[in-house]
Design brief:
Length: 236
């Protein structure tokens, strides 16, 4: 399929990647057509290795033959390269508000996504519980970030979905899978009411419905990752 103005868009990804889902959300919000290429990360394709020779990782967006790597960089590229295409810009026009959005996106990456990854990769219950504790602390701070960014409106971006919404929203199915996997909601209405309401609101968006992974499949995938990594021998 072709993007707007005849430009070719190809997304190299993997169904379970929240980082890939971020890019799908941005493309959907912009109304862009693209070819989705499913990657087998156990047997990486020549296309992936050639397109991202530094990290050999998904997602990679290929636009008219040019590869763009790393999900947040891809989001910013889509926002700039297709600024005239439909949809609300992801990043605000005001430089200060843009810096606030980038701050909270970086916070999500460093303080929530990193321990979230360790939850699935942990070899022991102790390691997993420590990562869950770090996630819980990050979520409490992010509740304040939502209040700061939204100014009491529906999304981090205000009345419409913005950059931070897409960065966090890529993991919406994993947030929904958190309770069946770990016995507690990630965004609990009693503890973080704004984030709990945001999650339900975000998942009802047409763009989210189009690209978010099935939660039951994510639960099965998460259990497989936990079992596999728990069985790995320790290097100590």
């Amino acid at each position: 399929m072709a993007g707007e103005k005849g430009e070719q868009l190809k997304l190299v990804g993997q169904w379970g990647s929240a980082f890939v889902t971020r890019v799908k959300l941005a493309l959907e919000l912009k109304g862009l057509n693209y070819e989705s290429v499913e990657e087998d990360l156990r047997n990486k394709s020549e296309l992936l290795l050639r397109s991202n020779p530094v990290h050999n990782a998904v997602p990679v967006l290929i636009h008219s033959g040019n590869p763009i790597c790393e999900s947040q960089i891809i989001l910013q590229y889509i926002d700039e390269a297709f600024a005239g295409v439909g949809g609300t810009p992801l990043l605000p026009a005001d430089p200060y508000q843009r810096s606030v959005a980038r701050f909270w996106a970086a916070y999500i990456e460093d303080k929530l996504v990193v321990p979230w990854d360790r939850v699935f990769r942990a070899r022991t219950d102790e390691e997993r519980n420590e990562a869950l504790r770090q996630m819980s602390a990050a979520v409490e701070a992010l509740e304040g970030g939502l209040e700061d960014c939204s100014k009491g409106k529906r999304f981090f971006g205000g009345d419409s979905v913005g950059y931070v919404d897409v960065v966090l929203g890529g993991a919406a199915s994993y947030a929904k899978a958190h309770e069946p996997l770990f016995g507690a909601k990630l965004f609990d209405a009693a503890r973080t009411p704004r984030l709990a309401a945001w999650l339900e609101r975000f998942c009802e968006l047409d763009a989210a419905r189009a690209v978010l992974q099935d939660v039951n499949r994510v639960v099965q995938y998460g259990r497989m990752l936990i079992a596999k990594n728990s069985a790995r021998p320790s290097n100590n």
